[in-house]
Amino acid sequence: MKGGSGRRRTLPGFGLTMGLTLTWLSIIILLPLAGLFLKSFELSLAQFVDIVTSRRTLNALKISFGLAFLAALVNLVMGGIIVWALVRYRFPGRRIFDAIVDVPFALPTAVAGIALTTLFAQNGWLGAPLAELGIKVSFTPLGIFVAMVFIGIPFVVRTVQPVLIDLDPEIEEAAASLGANRWQTVSRVILPSLLPALLTGFALAFARAVGEYGSVIFIAGNLPNVSEIAPLLIVIRLSEFRYADATAIAVVMLLVAFLVIFAVNRMQRWAQLRVPAH
Amino acid sequence: MSIEVRNIVKKFGDFAALDHVDLTVPHGELMALLGPSGSGKTTLLRIIAGLDWPDSGEVAFDGENALSRAPGERSVGFVFQHYALFRHMTVFENVAFGLRVQPRSVRKDEATIRARVKELLDLVQLDWLSSRYPSQLSGGQRQRIALARALAIEPRVLLLDEPFGALDAKVRKELRTWLRSLHEEINVTSIFVTHDQEEALEVANSVVVMDKGRIEQIGTPTDVYDNPQTAFVHGFIGESIVLPVEVDDGRVRLGDTPLNIAAERGNMGPSKLFVRRHDMQISPPGWGGLEGTVRRVRTFGPIQRADIAVSGNRGETIIEIDVPRDRELRDGEVVGLQPRRYRIFADPA
Ligand SMILES: Nc1ncnc2c1ncn2[C@@H]1O[C@H](COP(=O)(O)OP(=O)(O)OP(=O)(O)O)[C@@H](O)[C@H]1O
Ligand SMILES: [Mg+2]
């Protein structure tokens, strides 16, 4: 990526937009992150390791990242199916369902948390029948998972939807006339074409679920080591004025999140290479 | 394999895209489907390929009902107008696709598939592109890959929807000749849609002219050009001079002027006189018959083209004719016009 050096470009304004972009991203994103890192240097390495390897921290991180990953996986599959139905079929109420997908985006997270908690409480509409089956959702890790699925779904649907709409139906017809059955057409032609979008949707849903706080703490029960998410632990440490502890956990979250996003990004690059934009 | 299409009707809502179409394509034919935009060409191909179903009528391959078969079971190679290549697959994998999705019981082993794909890429002369992705190809190359992909399944029918539509004139010409020789080589029953009549007349064994969901004429290229059966075909194929005339009792009049040409049949009322541009000769005026005033003369190389105003009772009509360079024409000059060959079709409108 050599900037505007010498080569002529059709679009002017490279220098200006590039400069603005870098400045803006630095102020909005990099500066706060740098602050976070600096703060964590107030701790010695031993202290830092102590904090992040304490049982409570490790469990909180495990819960946050593990459940977020599972929730993103579920959203990937369910979101994919929902997108398919919304784009490919015409059924009564399609527009309403399409609009409903955005509800988790729009709802204040606290409202979502309360709604989900009520719904899945032992006497709630869904909680009661589940309780009969011996499944407890509210105030358990399962509840966290449910909240994470809830808030993540629009990310997958909305990233894949435009790509699927743009997918040329002739591609499928070509596959069919070459003798592919329905399953082969989906697995060999449609899914690979959607792969970059699906990965983006997955990454966004995952990132959102890791960072989710509002809706989760209502339904989680927040038992240390069992249903306490990392962001909550950070808040707790802050309220105890243990800023350095909070920062250490935050740094770990930041690093893991960064690694995951980076990995997904690499996969996207790889997938995109195989489906170059026209 | 021969294709028989019988009495096909295909409606989109109230609109009949195909209106009782009958067509027989003998084995080994290379047939061109010509017609204006929206005349139903693509729809007809899609129905033959099984990508669309007719409301009524039959399609048979070698006498066997084809409509009950899924597209993949028809052994039809379809080349889409916009190629429809799989963007996430290399050229090689695109061509191999039809072989890889075969049912396990008949699927060839990897080595055979590779050999076959290589053979096809050689056939379309693009072996050197096998590891590229479709987005890295030129239009003409994509077109040939789409063709190789369709040929991979050893189709018994090849359908090409405006195969050269998106290409420039020079590449079209190249690919046209190439398609012709390819067909001679593999001799698979083929139908190709085109907007370009020169292409149709030059490449095909037979030509089908469609208009408004109906077949207007089927014949050899010469036949369709020399003996158009309908006014539409005469106007659509080749360039024609068209004059509104009146025919009664075998006599032809332009406005009030009787023309010294004969109509084939008796009383047709309002009609259209069709003359090929090169069939209209200049003669001295005043001998009765058609006369016109020279409006504008242009020369292109060996020929000279003149706009001539002919007045009839439906007002003045400007016709364009080709005149040899040695006949000098002046603006405003009145000339006589004598059609060497002509056709008259009733025009009730
Ligand atoms: N899916 C569809 N829904 C509604 N109308 C359609 C559909 N497909 C085709 N038509 C109509 O049927 C008619 C014939 O279409 P078709 O695509 O067969 O034309 P064509 O001869 O291939 O034209 P072109 O040369 O422009 O490709 C057109 O008027 C078109 O608008
Ligand atoms: Mg068409």
Give a quick precis of the structure.
The complex is a heterodimer of chains A (278) and B (349). By secondary structure, chain A is an all-alpha fold.
Multimer state: heterodimer
- Please name the two chains that share the biggest interface, counting residues whose Cβ lies under 8 Å from a Cβ on the partner chain: A-B, 23 and 31 residues
- What portion of residues of chain B belong to β-strands? 35-45%
Question: Order of helices and strands of chain A, N to C?
Answer: HHHHHHHHHHHHH
C-alpha-based Rg of chain A, rounded: 22 Å
Physical arrangement of strands within the biggest beta sheet of chain B? 6-7-8-3-9-10
Class based on secondary structure composition and strand pairing of chain B: alpha+beta
* Distinct ligand kinds: adenosine-5'-triphosphate, magnesium ion
Instruction: Report the order of strands and helices of chain B.
Output: EEEHEEEHHHEHEHEEHHEEEEEEEEEE
* First-to-last CA distance of chain A: 21 Å
Ranges of chain B where pLDDT stays below 50 over 5 or more residues in a row are none
Give the overall silhouette of chain B. elongated
Tell me, rounded to a whole number, the average pLDDT of chain A: 86
Distance between the termini of chain B: 42 Å
Topology, element by element:
The complex is a heterodimer of chains A (278) and B (349).
Chain A (H helix, E strand, L loop, with lengths): L13 H27 L4 H8 L2 H34 L5 H7 L2 H4 L2 H12 L6 H6 L8 H26 L2 H9 L4 H30 L2 H7 L9 H10 L3 H32 L4
Helix pairs in contact in A: 1-13, 3-8, 3-10, 6-8, 6-11, 8-10, 8-11, 9-10, 10-13, 12-13
Chain B lengths: L2 E10 L2 E11 L4 E5 L6 H9 L6 E6 L2 E2 L10 E4 L11 H10 L9 H14 L15 H13 L5 E4 L8 H18 L2 E6 L2 H7 L2 E6 L2 E6 L1 H6 L4 H6 L3 E9 L2 E4 L2 E6 L6 E8 L3 E4 L6 E11 L2 E10 L2 E10 L9 E6 L3 E4 L3
Parallel strand pairs in B: 3-8, 3-9, 6-7, 7-8
Antiparallel strand pairs in B: 1-2, 1-4, 4-5, 9-10, 11-12, 11-14, 12-13, 14-20, 15-19, 16-17, 16-19, 17-18
The site of magnesium ion has 3 residues of chain B, from helix 1.
